Amino acid sequence: MYLMLKDTKVLYFDLEDFIAETIREDLLPYYLRLNLRRQVFNKDILHNIQEVKSYLSSRVLSLSRDNAKQIYAAFQIPQIDSVDNRVNICIKCKGVSIQDSYWIKEDNENVNWANVNIRQNKLRDIIDLSLSGVNPTITTSNICPELTTKGLFRKGWIRLGDNLYLLKSDKNQDNVNTRMEVLASDILGCFKNRIDTVAYVSDTKNTVDGEALVSICKNFVGEKYSFVEAWEVMEYVKRCGMDFAQYCMKRWGMKFASIPVLDYIVLNTDRHTQNYGFLMNNETGEIEQLAPLFDFNCALTADYFLRDAADTLSQMFNTADTLRGLAHRYIKDTNMIFYEEKFMRLSKSVMYKKYQYIFERVYGRIHELGIV
């Protein structure tokens, strides 16, 4: 079978016969670039198969995610969180994902990208299953974004008009993660000269379990670009003998430097290497832009519960740096402008009036960094 990028074959693989042959190195997923060896010895063959399996496995949702077991059941998939099972799931759903344009095509299969592109084709709505975990009574199409949407919080995709939107919720008291995600998004809107950020709004959705509070954001991946997670690029630049942070700073400077600064301001404790990344041109295979910053449902929760999380370890580079330490290291490389008046209006709005204490703590960190 083939790993495809839109309608271009980039890799041929047969896991049973231990075959992995690169067709287009320049269009391979970044995790596999410079990572597949010439098949001279048995250990090289095994290495290549293991890396292909690792990549395919990484595309599938984890059983740890809220309501994942119910989603697995709806697709009649064994609930085993092993690499081989995840690879089988990936192949079964053709590996299609909303976040990029890679997919899997069987040998001699008369199917093209237009047939499987779930950003363009109609989605089968299983949003109730994704958000509330209601027991499924019917099965649905395997080519569905639910099987390749990552993260641990309950979530699902819907189409409104010509656009796709991600709905997320949580099971915690007062839906604190959902509420804080929207608040963090609004606070980040009070800064200029920074990385672009995904905007979140709140709403309620009627599900079979009743009314659910959700955060909603628009899909930022189109047909020109694929989203590449930071961990893939991190591994790739390491193979090229480069330092990841230096590589990013050289290319994107103050926009990249604003990531740890903004994360400290809103105390986002979940900026791991699958939670930020880059946009790759689907025609050239080159990374051209930073992707907008997304996923804030772990932000501000420490402030909400009046906990001090400033010295929580940052996951951005998989180092021993803290949120505070990383922000102070990179603040000198930014040129952010803080709209204090907009921030104050936001803090006094009816929607956020009860969160004055959170705004005070955020304002203190902004002062600490010398942005005001």
Model description:
The protein is built from twelve helices and 13 strands. By secondary structure, it is of the alpha+beta class. The strands form four sheets. It has a four-stranded antiparallel β-sheet, with helices on one face. The protein has a four-stranded antiparallel β-sheet with strand order 5-6-9-8. Strands 10-11-12 form a three-stranded antiparallel β-sheet. Helix 8 packs across helix 10. It is globular, with a radius of gyration of 21 Å.
Please supply descriptive tags for the structure shown above:
17% strand; four-stranded antiparallel β-sheet; 372 residues; 12 helices; alpha+beta; globular
Structural class: alpha+beta
End-to-end Cα distance: 56 Å
Number of strands: 13
> Outline, from the CA principal axes?
globular
Total helix count? 12
Summarize the model shown:
The chain has 372 residues and is α+β, with helices and mostly antiparallel strands. It has 12 helices and 13 strands. α1 packs across α3 (83-92) and α8 packs across α10 (323-330).
Can you lay out the helices and strands and say which pair or pack?
Layout: E1 2-5, E2 8-14, E3 19-22, H1 42-58, H2 68-74, H3 83-92, E4 102-105, H4 113-116, H5 127-132, E5 155-160, E6 163-168, H6 176-188, E7 191-192, E8 201-207, E9 210-218, E10 225-229, H7 230-239, H8 244-265, E11 277-281, E12 287-290, H9 301-304, H10 323-330, E13 337-338, H11 340-347, H12 356-368
Antiparallel strand pairs: 1-2, 1-4, 2-3, 5-6, 6-9, 7-13, 8-9, 10-11, 11-12
Helix pairs in contact: 1-3, 8-10
